[in-house]
Amino acid sequence: MSDGKFDALFFPTMSCPASVIHGKKGSSYVCDASDEYAPSYIASSTDFPEISVTGGIAIGNVPVGVSFLGRANDDAKLLGFAYAFEAARSKTQ
Fold first, then answer.
1. 67 CB burial (10 A radius; 0-12, 13-18, 19+)
2. Which range marks the domain in which residue 65 is found?
């Protein structure tokens, strides 16, 4: 992140949308990812802070999460990014 001069990375929290009923995937649910939770492993494997917030609503009326990943000890900065994102998103609804 230092080489690219990034303050944080922004990405979907999961590779696929959540199922309508947690843990139960109906016949219409499609996820081509080998591991739908793979993006959430970034923080735990790097020991960098991450925060997830609601990014919107997907088809099927299920929430979609987005994550901000920062550098070590940038927790306060990530909270600021998440707060600004949610404030901007609430203005568009």
1. buried
2. 8-19+29-91
